[in-house]
């Protein structure tokens, strides 16, 4: 009987262990890198001071990281032997900010060498990017480790497209465990930043082979955008034509008047009978409601399949895996 009890206890502990290892924590770096929040915030502020788009670039990297294999820093890996970079995926075409991540990582390494993962840096930098430009703050959960592999195929399939319908967007969010409120709240990150004309100019004429413009696109706004895009498909337009560099609720007020820049933005409000319409209305009515849900949705997204415990590694260089040691194991500098 004692032996049977011991076996039962072993399996009970084994069942609990994965959940324990996957648990991220607010105080993960309290002893090993207590200055991390200050280091990252200072670096993000420096980046925004020199490039107002820096915050939007950083949060986009975090989004695109978490939607492929979870929040593991894989989006930062460049092509190397055995690695086909996710940056080659159409969903990451034109993605920017890698040099900003490198600068933040360098500052963190000076203060806390070999301790903080690139995946955690993306999560922390995203919070600061939002907060420094007028948005909410939250306690970032830490403890993610960096992947030693990339997944371009996953990036091709899993990243949301600006050309997608609400049904398609919901499916991609559901695939990573995020719900409709998460979809609407996280889309609010488009309250700052820019997009290239090639991602929305299909709305100007012959939309979906109708021979007419996208009917959900405000006609006067369309004329403004057509003027901007006359300079070429790689010209950038503000996501938010009202307060383009401030993190606020105007993304949602814009949707209510047909001024969502991307088709995938406007789908949230203009899809007939959609349950997202009421959420857009609530966020447009009260900025505090949006901020509250955005904070929670960022935490939800940051919890997507993190590598923890002894999985993965702490990369010295966010763009490349650590040099392999004998036996082919990744060198762990923890």
Automatic annotation (TrEMBL):
Keywords: Calcium, Disulfide bond, Glycoprotein, Heme, Hydrogen peroxide, Iron, Metal-binding, Oxidoreductase, Peroxidase, Secreted, Signal. One of its GO terms (molecular function) is heme binding. The active site is at residue 64. Disulfide bonds join 33-112, 66-71, 118-318, 197-229. One of its GO terms (biological process) is response to oxidative stress. The keyword Zinc does not apply. Its cofactor is Ca(2+); heme b. Ca(2+) 1 binds at residues 65, 68, 70, 72, 74, 86. Binds 2 calcium ions per subunit. It is found in: Secreted. Heme b binds at residue 190. Its EC number is 1.11.1.7. InterPro entries: Haem_peroxidase, Haem_peroxidase_sf, Peroxidase_pln, Peroxidases_AS, Peroxidases_heam-ligand_BS, Secretory_peroxidase. The keyword Zinc does not apply. Belongs to the peroxidase family. Classical plant (class III) peroxidase subfamily. This is Peroxidase. It comes from Cucurbita maxima (Pumpkin). The gene is LOC111490833.
